[in-house]
Here is the input.
Amino acid sequence: MLDPRLFRADLDDIKEQLKRRSFEFDSAYYSELESSRKAVQVKTQELQNERNSRSKAIGQAKAKGEDVQPLLDQVQDLGDQLKAAETELSEIQEKMTVLMEGIPNILDETVPDGKSEDFNVEINRWGDIPEFTFEAKDHVDLGSRKGMGFELGAKIAGARFVVLKGHIARLQRAIIQLMLDTHVSEHGYNETYVPFLVNAESLRGTGQLPKFEADLFKVSHDPAFYLIPTAEVPVTNIVRDVIVEAKEMPLKFVCHSPCFRSEAGAYGRDVRGMIRQHQFEKVEIVQIVRPEDSQAAHEELTGHAEVILKKLKLPYRKMLLCAGDTGFSSAKTYDLEVWLPGQKAYREISSCSNFKDFQARRLQARWRNPETGKPELVHTLNGSGLAAGRTLIAVMENYQDAEGNIQIPDALLPYMGGVQLI
Here is the structure.
């Protein structure tokens, strides 16, 4: 959520900044609500002061032996008016909250303009695209006889599910273990286990609710639970309503979890294989930092995700997302896109974002600034370090041979129990 003071200070500037996202902010409606809020708030304060004054007069009248009934009637009437004004103010504030929760984050000034992914900017590439002497297969063809079962997943659950067995299942587990070991031992993250079901408040805190409810799996329960779309949600909520001491900053968490997405907005896209599933595995890295450190932390966190790709010797490119392709809550995002020989294309394998104080304001996640002694909002960042299923796909396709076998990358051999070839 954006700072309401920004709107009060320069509404036109905020409106122009939001246009970069093609988001049309209804400034007239906002101004109407804000004007009503101010008027009713003043009225409420005046009624409160008047009731307090009359209540004091009752005590004075009693002390003089005067008839206090007229004053009691006045206080009762003022109380009824105050209650009605407080109800009106609460309703206006609720409308204001709904409006503010639907407004995306302000983009960092370094984010390029553009309305779609076609305007994303390539920062750099790493690794050599493999040159095969044969027609490269995709992961579906490679995995069909090696324990990757899409038909079985569909039988058990439905479309966009898969069953992994044998060495393929172990290969995904090895990939996850490599990621966790690297981020914990080399990058200093604190390994974290979290619930895979969360409440609505947690999703509201990180920006998935109310805007993206259609993308979530909601569990029939009272109160409602939601399956997590990413470990970002429960991990970032660790600092909800918390004041972190300066000496504890930065907080760095890594978490492996399943992720669940309805893919409501992706109908008909990537229906073949594991690219877009309802259930998938991911290793998430999260940082909670001081505001002045978030830009450097964003570069660092993205670099940590890149290390995994380099260890696996998977060719990739780093993209800076344009205004129209940057997520709702993010101020700036880098995508890492890995090369998939089966598709002859780069595909996203990690998205690393700096949210600045957008999530923190919703979460009331703060740190105590030692210079002022006062709590201030933290900055939050996260990224995939990496998406395990897509990494599995990339390993299978980049390490295939003419017979359809898959060579195990050197970095994964310690986790494969002696298996070098699938």
The first strand starts at residue 121 and ends at 126. The radius of gyration is 27 Å. The chain has twelve helices and 16 strands. Residues 117-415 form a domain with the BirA Bifunctional Protein; domain 2 fold (CATH 3.30.930.10).
